[in-house]
């Protein structure tokens, strides 16, 4: 990888630089870039990226905090502002919300078509090229050189679609819990925070979404390159059991497996979920205020996590 940047929205940008005379500029460079994108979460955890940023600042004799806050144009920022930026970068990286950027003095027609095709098809990832042509005077000394950049890969349709996706995806953990605190009673907010802490301690990543009516929090567990998100917690006070997606992934891809989970959940005091094999049946957060009910819920959740991790590569998830 030639360069890795984070922009002001914490979107990771992977840059590959090649000369147009390099015979590898088409197929090999595209393969390299897609390899970076597919493996970035594994090989470039955000802790490593942050450590490299801080080390680079140290080498230059600059303060990492001052550098970041200046970049974000925050005059009186706090450690929480910086943590939120890195947290957003991690969410973007895990969600594939990245930018792949090819840079060359000339982008061949074949590579241009590949980039335009990938940018149209890959959402929320953005695939672009920058062609930087160089012009120089030949009849005077000293020689004057002008660099003229041109962005390749953008189209009105692709840009609008990705902009809409990014606008929705920029919702963060802090914003979710801020909205949750405004809309729900403290006891229910604490329930969600406890679930989040429990899930994080077991290796979960978090995804957040926002609609016009409510926001959602999904604890996600990844196994064999497949994501599982059994439950969604909403700022309107509902919890969804997402059989619609869970039932499409082994070992839950049978009616018996889903029915067993429903039976376990309905052992929670005060809970009577309808058996919906493919849907998003929901219940109120108030059910989990009671400690025995909360513990039973985590017991079922732990059972789901254990079953996810029991799947082997020979029995690969759908």
Distance between the termini: 31 Å
- SSE order, one letter for each helix or strand: EEHHHHEHEEHHHEEEEEHHEH
Helix content: 40-55%
What is the structural class? Answer: alpha+beta
Main beta sheet: 6 strands, antiparallel
Overall mean pLDDT: 84
Number of strands: 11
Number of helices: 11
- The total number of structural domains is 2
**Contiguous runs where pLDDT drops below 50 for at least 5 residues:** 156-160, 163-169
Large-scale geometry:
elongated
Strand content: 15-25%
> What does the radius of gyration come to?
24 Å
What does this structure look like?
46% of the residues lie in helices and 20% in strands. It has 318 residues and is α+β, with helices and mostly antiparallel strands. Strands 6, 7, 8, 9, 10 and 11 form a 6-stranded antiparallel beta sheet that branches. A 5-stranded mixed beta sheet has the order 1-2-3-4-5. The longest helix is centred in the last third of the chain and has 20 residues, at 291-310. The chain is elongated.
């Amino acid at each position: 990888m030639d360069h890795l940047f984070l922009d002001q929205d914490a979107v990771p940008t992977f840059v590959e630089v090649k000369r147009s005379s390099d015979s590898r500029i088409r197929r090999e460079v595209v393969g390299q870039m897609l390899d970076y994108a597919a493996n970035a979460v594994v090989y470039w955890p955000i802790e490593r990226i942050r450590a490299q940023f801080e080390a680079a600042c140290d080498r230059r004799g600059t303060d990492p905090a001052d550098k970041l806050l200046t970049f974000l144009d925050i005059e009186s920022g706090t450690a929480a502002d910086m943590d939120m930026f890195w947290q957003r970068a991690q969410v973007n990286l895990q969600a594939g919300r990245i930018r792949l950027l090819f840079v060359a003095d000339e982008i061949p027609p074949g590579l241009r078509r590949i980039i335009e095709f990938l940018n149209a098809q890959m959402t929320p990832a953005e695939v672009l090229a920058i062609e930087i042509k160089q012009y120089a005077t030949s009849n005077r000394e000293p020689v004057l050189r002008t660099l003229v950049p041109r962005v390749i890969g953008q189209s009105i349709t692709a840009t609008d679609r990705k902009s809409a996706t990014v606008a929705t995806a920029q919702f963060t953990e802090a914003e979710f819990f801020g909205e949750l605190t405004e809309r729900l009673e403290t006891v229910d907010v604490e329930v969600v925070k406890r679930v989040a802490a429990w899930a994080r301690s077991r290796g979960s990543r978090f995804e957040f979404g926002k609609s016009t009516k409510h926001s959602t929090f999904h604890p996600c567990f990844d196994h064999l390159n497949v994501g599982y998100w059994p439950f969604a917690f909403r700022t309107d006070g509902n919890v969804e059991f997402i059989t619609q997606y869970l039932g499409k992934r082994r070992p839950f891809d049978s009616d018996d497996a889903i029915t067993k989970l429903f039976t376990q959940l309905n052992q929670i005091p005060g809970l009577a979920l309808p058996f919906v094999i493919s849907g998003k049946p929901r219940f109120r957060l108030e059910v989990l205020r009671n400690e025995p009910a909360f513990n039973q819920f985590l017991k079922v959740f732990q059972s789901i996590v254990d079953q996810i991790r029991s799947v082997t590569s020979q029995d690969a998830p759908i």
